[in-house]
Amino acid sequence: MSKLELNNVRKQYGALAVVDDLSLQLRKGELVTLLGPSGCGKTTTLRMIAGFIELSGGSIAVDGRQISGAGRTVPPEHRGMSMIFQSYAIWPNMTVAENVAFGLNVRRVPGEESKRRVEEMLDVVKLGALAQRYPAELSGGQQQRVALARAMVVRPEVLLLDEPLSNLDANLREEMAGEIRRLHDEFNFTTVYVTHDQTEAMTISDRIAVLNLGKLEQIDTPWNLYNRPRTRFVAGFIGQTNLVEGHVRDGQIRLRGLEGVLPMGGQAAAASADMRISIRPQSLFLGPQGNGALPMGAVSVVARTYLGEYWDYLVRPTAGGDELKVHAPPSSVLDVGHESLLSIDPAGVALVS
Amino acid sequence: MSEAVTIAPPMRARIPNRMGDPAVWLFGTLILLLILLVANPILRLIWDSFHTADGTLSFSSYAAALGRSRNLQALLNSFYLGVAVTAIAIALGVPLALAVSRTNMPARGFTHVSVLAAFVMPNFLGAIAWILLAGPNAGWLNRLWSEVLGTDRGPFNIFSFWGLAFVIALYTYPLIYVFTKSALDLVSTELEDAASIHGAGKLRTLTRVTLPLVLPSIVGAAILIFLESVALYGTPALIAIPAGLNLATTQIVSFFEYPLKVEQAAAFSMPILALTVVMLYLQRRLLARKGFVSVSGKGGERRPFDVGAWKWVLLGYSALVSLLTVVMPLIILVLASLSKAWGRGFSAGNLTFANFYNIFFEQLTVRSALVNTVTYSAVTALVCVAMGMCVAYATQRRITPFPTLIQFLALAPVAVPGLILAIGLYAAYAGPPFSLYGTGALVVVAFTTRFLPIAVTACGAGVRSLNPELEEAVRILGGGRLTALGKVVVPLLNKTLVGAFILVFVICTKELSTAVFLTGPASRVVSVLTLDLSEQGNYESLAAMGVVLVVIVTLVVGIGMRIAGRDFMLRRS
Amino acid sequence: MTLTRRQFSALAASAMTAPWAHAQQPQPANLASLYEAAKKERELTWYIVFLPSEDAETMARAFTARYPGVKVNVVRTTAQVAFQRLNQDLKARTANCDVFSSTDIGHYVDLKARKLLTKYTPASAALMDSRLQNLDADGYYHAASAFMVGLVYNSNKVKAAEAPTSWMDLADPKWRGLASVGHPGFSGAVGTWCIEMRKLYGDGWFKKLALNKPQVGRSIIDTVTTVNSGERSISAGPVNLAALTASKGNPLAVSAPKEGPVLIVSPSAIMANAPHPNASKLFMEWMLVSEDADRITTQLYGIPRRAGARPLPGVLGLGDVKTVLQPTAKESVDQLPEVIDLWKDAFGV
């Protein structure tokens, strides 16, 4: 039995369905991220799980017991969950220790035990020395940790995180993402994490659920999402990719303007059809053949941008066809108009619907 | 420290249904209270106006009340008075608001304090002071004038239509100031810079560019002042009767002479009530138009606008206003309170502390009135803040059903002039089955009903300023709504609450119209006692009582400013 | 006739030290038991009109000094306001007032007819001046105070030779804008005075008075204040208060009008629903003719009620003036509303 189950959950505001027919099952101890652009319904879903928003249809259950559904919504205070808010929501009128102890006090944990657990948790998040400080004296990252400690010390059924890292600067974000994963591994709470940042999602998740316009596009492990995107949206959203029309026949993929063929490699498709192909820019190579990439044909450079860590070349087959983005190492300097051989590594190719 | 995740059992135990939630009970009681406080008196008032004294349904009360030309003249006089007061108040408040908010006039802080002082000063006390100053023959100003200039008598006559309008305007202009200044504070200096670049002179810029931007706010405040002047009782009783002016409020009071004609009073009040509702609706529409100025909090950069030599003119004007509203009246009150016989003038032989001794130790009515005033004002402020906080929280966070309706109920008393509300409350609660007449409880009920809107608005602004996630964090951790309210919302809003408490307290001390029918011998307050004492011409004791009241209120306001910041009273809610 | 300040004080001093004509009578036995019962009730509430609140409080304190343990709550207002509040009390069925002392006899006629008064004749009533006794034949209310309304003027502004001598002077153009009167809609004394003026000069008098632009206060006490301050020069005001104020060094003087001063007799009564009946009875006994009450009254330049007692020199006593204007009880009741209406029509308010 899954720990947290969403069945055909729908939320409608007027005629607009913000969340449409969403179904998810989380195993106990799993960390699943809801990933998507703004407006995709991920925060609404999270708040429905928390109980702040009522469902328009469908149901949510924890351990098989329904907590949200037609007619009845258990209020947040009775769900036994914890949440970390985008603004951290640390209460400024209480010290760090008082903040963290709050949930324990509500559960009437005896004073001694409460103190002990708070201290332990503060050590875990490395805030032990700041227990008596007030939130106004803390940095963003430290406040973040207080929120984490507060949420975890009560051992929630489900831990919910609402874009917790969006207010931090880039370096801190990476560090905190790692922290969150580490803490998850230590305590193993069933966790639902919401973000629009795919790097975050990839770093910390067991599985990622990609949402778009209220619908679930694909739920899969990070590797599968990147390398085996099943929908156009997922392919375009996760990482960068080239989406081109190609023709599939006899287990081989042909691209317009290029003579070479790519093997289909076990991906299901109709016998002969035109399909959309996703090719990762890192899987395209310009210049002499090598690295296990298959040669495809002659292309010329249409435009180029240097981004520090790699060159971003836009190339087009000399015989005409779709433009393709290529990521090349910094040492590979090519002028616009330069003609070159294009090779593709089939591992970065996927058929999308 | 890995551990198996153990779920705390209590969270999985029986989940109480909606009826078991204490928050629902609390807020349900609140709604009931609101209905009792607000809906009942107003409905009762309307009901009474359509009935005669023995309970039969008829229009005769309307006929009797509005049929006599003298009564209609009273309504008309009040209307003229409202217009006159509004005009004077605008002339006083707008230039000062402009000067303090936009220009580089020196001593802006002083001006701000002077406006605050005018707000704190009760209207009726100001009236007394001005009677002492500008009585046509004995007023000190007139005497000074005729001595210095050798004329027979001075030119000032407080017992006239314009004298009355002048005195009322002096103590209501702070409202215009607050509204205008709030709006001006949001206008970016860039607009004025643009005008300057195009060659507009300083004065022209202010009047042709800046002022029109805040016109809706000014008009909004003007409407409020108009309504307040029409509904005022204290100053008219003191000045209008000797002046031979019949006003709506003095007319209403005369309906309470023997034999009691409550129904006629109710009928007479209906046109005023209707007028108030219509004008408030207009005002709301006006102020909702945000097209002129972006009222989203940050208005862009604001620099003081250099007005050159005009700043001295403005400063002089500010000093003059301060003189008229605060300095001269306070001086004369203090002098009168220290005199044996104020008519004798200021001389060494006329000084005494006996009046103060008198009111504290001998004239028990004055002492008990002071105690009553402070007590009722404090209790009212407490109840208003508590109820206001609950109403604001319940409606902003949509805890109860029909939040808009509840908010409307809580704010409705604004539309009912104090005197008329008093009639409604009298009709509803003075007699059986409540029989509250003559008790302090009735006064507290009346004041609470009247001033709850202030508390609700202030608390509402406070609640809106809070990030809802702070309360959600409480709930997700297991605390209910009441826990969120008590542990997080109230502590975070303590400055707002203190500010609201003191604001309501001060306004209660000044309140006369609502109290005039509802106080019995044991529950008299300073404002009503002022009227009673003034009938006897006992200005010395009156002045002493007034000075003590002003001292008490100033102390409380001072404490408030320490706790809640300098501007807590003059912020527009 | 007028007296200078020095004459006032000199004569006042001598009068104060003169021994009383009658020896003080010992407390009768039933008074002692009344006192015991009153002590149990501990206090009473007194709606008082005919004294300024300072003086009313002085009376109250003197009573408590004489009868320790019984407090008097003084509620001082003008007559109409007192009556209005009394009626509000009655309509709300709350009993606040114990003893009602107003200046408008019409109120008492009305209250008696509505059976709202207690029938009680204090034993001390027998000691009163005969002219003041039997105000009400049935003993529901008794005369608690008598004072004259005469012409009061400011001695700084008006020389004795030019002083007003007739009620008609108030409407004389010579005194336009310089006179001061009360308002019959508020003050019972002014109401009574208006009734007499109407009897003298007819309905048109009010319009004539209004044309002369007097300052209209609410209470008759106002008239003394305005003349005292110099705000106005002459007024129709209470003679006793004028004399008292003058004795403090203020520039006031009194003139008896040739038509005669108006005598205001202020009744007092105990309410039928008085919450403290015994204390009230004790208070009535004391207030009407006790030594204390008379002494205070005399000090305040009033007319003491005890038979044979003399007011201070210079104050017109009951026997001192040939004509005294006084309406009958019936006239008071019938004519007061008419007079108020005439006034409001003439003055507009």
Structural class of chain C: alpha/beta
Low-confidence stretches of chain A: none
Mean pLDDT of chain A: 88
The biggest sheet of chain C, with number of strands, parallel, antiparallel or mixed sense and barrel status, is: 10 strands, mixed
Of all protein chain pairs, which has the greatest interface, and how many residues does each chain bring to it? B-C, 49 and 55 residues
The radius of gyration over CA of chain C amounts to 20 Å
Could you tell me the mean pLDDT of chain C? 82
Counting H and I runs of at least 4 residues, what is the number of helices of chain A? 8
Summarize this structure as a short list of keywords or feature phrases:
heterotrimer; A: 353 residues; alpha+beta; Rossmann fold; OB fold (Dihydrolipoamide Acetyltransferase, E2P); 6-stranded mixed β-sheet; 5-stranded antiparallel β-sheet; C: 349 residues; alpha/beta; D-Maltodextrin-Binding Protein, domain 2; 2 domains; 10-stranded mixed β-sheet; 12 helices; globular; disordered N terminus
Structure report:
The complex is a heterotrimer of chains A (353), B (573) and C (349). With 353 residues, chain A is of the alpha+beta class. Chain A has 3 domains: 4-81 and 156-232, Rossmann fold; 93-155, no CATH class; 240-352, Nucleic acid-binding proteins (OB fold (Dihydrolipoamide Acetyltransferase, E2P), Beta Barrel). Chain A is built from 8 helices and 20 strands. Chain A has helices spanning 42-50, 96-106, 111-124, 140-152, 170-187, 198-204, 222-227, 232-237; strands at 4-13, 16-26, 31-35, 57-62, 65-68, 82-84, 158-162, 190-195, 207-212, 215-220, 242-249, 252-255, 261-263, 272-279, 284-286, 294-306, 311-317, 324-328, 339-344, 349-352. In chain A, strands 6-7-8-3-9-10 form a 6-stranded mixed beta sheet, sandwiched between helices. The model of chain A has no long low-confidence stretch (mean pLDDT 88). By secondary structure, chain B is mainly α. Chain B contains 24 helices and no strands. In chain B, helix 5 (123-134) packs across helix 7 (161-184). Chain C is α/β, with parallel strands linked by helices and 349 residues long. Helix content of chain C is 41%, strand content 16%. Chain C contains 12 helices and 10 strands. Chain C has helices at 5-17, 29-41, 53-66, 79-91, 105-113, 188-201, 205-211, 220-229, 239-247, 277-289, 291-299, 329-347; strands at residues 43-48, 71-76, 99-101, 117-118, 141-154, 179-181, 215-216, 234-238, 252-255, 262-271. At the B-C interface, helix 11 and helix 23 of B face helix 3, strand 2, helix 4, strand 7 and helix 8 of C.
